[in-house]
Amino acid sequence: MDNKVYEMQAEYFKALSHPVRIKILYYLKKGERCVCEIVPYLKEEQSNISRHLAALKRAGILSSRKEGVSVYYRVEDENVYKIVDLALYSVKKVAKEKVALLS
User: Fold this and answer.
1) What structural domains does the chain harbor?
2) In the predicted model, is pLDDT for residue 1 greater than 80?
3) What is the average pLDDT score of the chain?
4) Most buried of 48, 72, 81, 98, CB within 10 angstroms?
5) Helix, strand, coil percent content, the chain, rounded in steps of 5
6) Rounded CA gap, 10 and 74, in Å?
């Protein structure tokens, strides 16, 4: 594979590498949401949420549309949930193994 492809994959994973971004994805799993809904749900500053939304959008994970003064975000490719769910499965597996070692 071309190095550019590896770089694009790394950028994709980099976009997923923050807990707030993962929370945003799970919140958007039910469908499109306005920033005005996302901010209070996550209890974060709007500027912080906007930064994370922009990172996810740059990676092609989210798309947005404007309606009046409101901006709505949605997940562009539902396959991202397979990735985050698989990561969660792996994290739980490792945690169980560590607990078993301590027992």
Assistant:
1) 3-102 (1.10.10.10)
2) no
3) 93
4) 72
5) 65, 15, 20
6) 22
CB 71 within 8 A of CB 64: yes
Under 8 Å CB-to-CB from 33, ≥6 apart: which residues?
A: 27, 72, 73, 74
Can you spell out the DSSP letters for 48-83?
HHHHHHHHHHHTTSEEEEEETTEEEEEES-TTHHHH
52-61 contacts at long range (C-beta below 8 A, 24 or more positions apart): 52/18, 52/20, 52/21, 52/24, 53/24, 55/15, 55/18, 55/21, 56/15, 56/21, 56/24, 56/25, 58/15, 59/11, 59/12, 59/14, 59/15, 59/16, 60/12, 61/12, 61/15, 61/16, 61/25
Residue pair 42/87 in contact (Cβ under 8 Å)? The answer is no
pTM score, whole prediction = 0.87
pLDDT in tens, 65-79: 999 999 999 999 999
